[in-house]
């Protein structure tokens, strides 16, 4: 009888976001092929993983980003015991601080897989001004070289990783959506078109650009899903606009279904935003900032409208076009769903991860 591999997924980030959605989806792919364990920091993620049959250790200390270092110290202390106690074969890590665990994982005899969810961002910070941002990112980039394999969630991320990591250890497995909704999206002229934003309420996510673009624009209302430290400023900017801040939503499917246009105005850097893929899978007409990864998933703007990064005026022009053109929304919708079905399906991801974790023989 072939021994099932034991895989440990490590994610100690907070709050809940795209990486946590990724970990849940990855567990759902692997759980029938191996015994899955996890160390995480969020009760929401722990509950979702446990429902899949994952054995979870949820850290007792939560809170804001300021507690990242404390969570990492606790994780580093229990990590060797966890690997030895459960005879872990493969460790998969997410996040900057978690990357430091690849070296002890290799030392203790485990395969170490690091998923790179985005650019390292080292160049965005100065060590003497933002040491808590700079040094974890610098260390993360360096520790990539100790990983057995590095999985990149998009071609855009892969291009950066390949500058420093041996190509033989780099795998590009794009993010994916769990399922393609089967319903037919209705398209018709409405007096008020509903816009949707889903993401963390941080300045780099660019929601302020959308609010600026909506100023004086008739026939549009906006639903905002997400939490973050920039929310008070955003609520101030939204005064006088038809905008609803609804907070965190664990299952935004109904919001995707009721919306007409999805906007991701991120300033970047981004790896591959799962919310962008989810909106495309639901057949929403999308407007994305012209980041490399958005060009990648929209086939250069064929399946979504792209606007210049940081340019609220250009975003406004794209909004006006979609608000007034139902047929254009219908065309973008069809192309978006077709791209997701062909390139970003669970089947494509599953094939890639079975190879990455060397579980292909277990499948046969």
Task: Describe what this molecule looks like in 3D.
With 364 residues, the protein is an alpha/beta fold. The protein has two domains: 6-176 and 345-363, 3-Layer(aba) Sandwich (Rossmann fold), CATH 3.40.50.2000; 193-343, Rossmann fold (3-Layer(aba) Sandwich). The protein is built from 15 helices and 13 strands. The strands form two sheets. A seven-stranded parallel β-sheet has the order 3-2-1-4-5-6-7. A six-stranded parallel β-sheet has the order 10-9-8-11-12-13, sandwiched between helices. α7 (207-214) crosses α12. It starts with 5 loop residues before the first strand and ends with a helix. The model has no long low-confidence stretch (mean pLDDT 91).
Per CATH, the superfamily of the largest domain is Glycogen Phosphorylase B
Determine the N-to-C terminus distance: 13 Å
CATH architecture of the largest domain: 3-Layer(aba) Sandwich
What's the arrangement of strands in the largest beta sheet? 3-2-1-4-5-6-7
The fraction of residues in strands falls at 15-25%
**How many structural units, i.e. domains?**
2
User: What Rg is obtained from the alpha carbons, in whole angstroms?
Assistant: 21 Å
Q: Which stretches of 5+ consecutive residues score pLDDT under 50?
A: none
The CATH class label of the largest domain is Alpha Beta
CATH topology of the largest domain: Rossmann fold
Shape designation: globular
Put simply, the count of helices is 15
* Main β-sheet description: 7 strands, parallel
- Which H/E pattern describes the elements? EHEHEHEHEHEHEEHEHEHEHEHEHHHH
Structural class: alpha/beta
* Count of distinct strands: 13
Mean pLDDT: 91
What level of helicity do the residues show? Answer: 40-55%
